[in-house]
Amino acid sequence: LLTSFAATLTYDTLRFGEFEDFPETSEPVWILGKEYNALTERDEILSDVTSRLWFTYRKNFPPIGGTGPTSDTGWGCMLRCGQMILGEALVCRHVGRDWRWARGQKQREEYISILNAFIDKKDSYYSIHQIAQMGVGEGKPIGQWYGPNTVAQVLKKLAVFDTWSRLVVHVAMDNTVVIEEIKRLCMPWLDAAGACGGAGELNGCLEGACALAEEETALWKPLVLLIPLRLGLSDINEAYIETLKQCFMLPQSLGVIGGKPNSAHYFIGYVGEELIYLDPHTTQPAVDPCEDGQVPDETYHCQHPPCRMHICELDPSIAAGFFCRTEDEFDDWCMRIRRVRFCEHCSFVAPLTHFSDSDRLERFFDSEDEEFEILSL
């Protein structure tokens, strides 16, 4: 009882105190591709932030692996940030970026399904259990802290089993986005058409030996693009600050995961020189769905003014995320990202190119983020 009370007290304290109110400023506020006026749209800003899924440390969940930890306090912050950036992708995929959460409102079926994908139990698609156990294959024992690249690689692997969302999660390594590779991943029927002698023969092939499962013939599988980056050595290079801000202005933005050394945050926007973020470092009791299928969801939404930190405090190792529901959205992202530059000689994603089959990038990194290529100025 005392433990439960302490957890509730901690959460209530976080909700109703200790946080600065949102600043009154004439500078624009950007939240995941949407621009706000802090002087006239404060309620809209807070509603948008509150509607993002907030995944924090939890305790008293079933042991990971049957005999492992029952809480991720102290080690699971980057895993929770990975859940948040992917949770935003699922929100965009199933209920739309403009969907808003309100306390006590009747829950949409799609929203319940999204929450169930993250419930802290072994059979949820993106539970702490699944992420921690899949991370073992990336060289991370259960209970060890992750970097942005590791959690990106794990989410890529787990998404394959999510037959409901049918996402393509692609991790762009070496600061390189290979357009042709992504289009083949998101439109697998292109390869089938090539194998059958060209797109003109696709329909005939589908009736015969080259038939694909129905879900494989969709024109475009929604894309979650995760780009691990290193923006400096020990501190963020000031040359990248404006470019990082521009990432939050793109309509395809899913935000950024990163933070400070061994202390991860989910960054969703900025105002002035401050980044706006959701902080997973709050331990709350694990949640079980109700018998009627509803999920008690108040602790999955941050109901206090969002946290802020000066952009220069950001650890240089990050992963930026983007969501493209359609091919047109991906083409639009490619056009926009070419205009986003870290400096005069180095593009944000360098280069955006087409590669032949022999040049396709299939590289996996089992080592941690400090071994990433550093963009030179």
From TrEMBL:
MF GO annotations: cysteine-type endopeptidase activity; protein-phosphatidylethanolamide deconjugating activity
The keyword Nucleus belongs to this UniProt entry's keyword annotation: no
Any one Gene Ontology BP term: mitophagy
Top-level division of the source organism's lineage: Eukaryota
Catalytic activity: [protein]-C-terminal L-amino acid-glycyl-phosphatidylserine + H2O = [protein]-C-terminal L-amino acid-glycine + a 1,2-diacyl-sn-glycero-3-phospho-L-serine; [protein]-C-terminal L-amino acid-glycyl-phosphatidylethanolamide + H2O = [protein]-C-terminal L-amino acid-glycine + a 1,2-diacyl-sn-glycero-3-phosphoethanolamine
Function: Cysteine protease that plays a key role in autophagy by mediating both proteolytic activation and delipidation of ATG8 family proteins.
Pfam family, one: ATG4_LIR
Keywords tagged on the record: Autophagy, Cytoplasm, Cytoplasmic vesicle, Endoplasmic reticulum, Hydrolase, Mitochondrion, Protease, Protein transport, Thiol protease, Transport, Ubl conjugation pathway
Underlying gene: atg4b
Family assignment from sequence similarity: Belongs to the peptidase C54 family.
GO CC annotation: autophagosome; cytoplasmic vesicle; cytosol; endoplasmic reticulum; mitochondrion
InterPro entries: ATG4_LIR, Papain-like_cys_pep_sf, Peptidase_C54, Peptidase_C54_cat
Protein EC: 3.4.22.-
Annotated protein name in UniProt: Cysteine protease
Location of the protein in the cell: Cytoplasm, Cytosol; Cytoplasmic vesicle, Autophagosome; Endoplasmic reticulum; Mitochondrion
Domain Peptidase C54 catalytic: 43-335
UniProt entry tagged with the keyword Ribonucleoprotein: no
